[in-house]
Protein: Nucleotidyltransferase family protein
Amino acid sequence: MTHPTTASRPVQAVVLAGGQGSRLRPYTDDRPKPMVEIPGTGTPIIGHQLVWLAEEGVTDVVISCGHLAEVLQDWLKSADLPVRVTTVVETEPLGRGGGLKYAAAHLPHPDRPWYATNGDIWTRFSLRDMADFHTERDAVATLALARPRIPWGAVKTDGFGHITDFIEAPPSTFEINAGVYVFSPEFAGLLPERGDHERTTFPRLARERRLAGFPIPQGAYWRAIDTAKDLTEAAKELAALGR
Structure:
């Protein structure tokens, strides 16, 4: 098992911000999904992510843009950013894996590890701990894992088919890919030129036992902002947390 050092923690990251955000309409009619603001926070999702990455030791971020890229680029020009930001725009659709590879080619330190995050994730946990976990397992890629709350009420039954309890929005029994990653330098070379790495690169690494899963610590906030309902739920949750 490899022991982590401060040098093995990434100082660079890719943010994937190119999606259409069609399920978030009308909010995404005039802006890309990462530019949507959770009511009450005073900042778009991408702004929150850049602050979080900076707090975790990141100095350079490559943002992969697509849908309404110029809106995001204009905001970046006017904002007081806590990191150095480069934007890249795919000239043709490359798929999730190809897009990640294209963005990674613009990282300032190709021989060093890097973080990546989907542009619609609002979360706060220690990326440094995740990077150490990645190093300890000698992984090529590590996925953050979340247990989202199921949007329905659940029921408990006994062995005789009697309902014994109702549970409002319980956490899922399955862990899911939380859309936050740590990648070793060689990972970019394993990505497809075009296509989806979640169907090619990740399964291959899993078979080789080189893919790790880091459970987001209990009590840490995590939500993917995918629909208008997610936006209102996140606003309520963050207000209750005082954030």
User: Anything to note?
Assistant: Helices lie at 45-55, 69-78, 95-104, 127-136, 187-190, 201-207, 228-241.
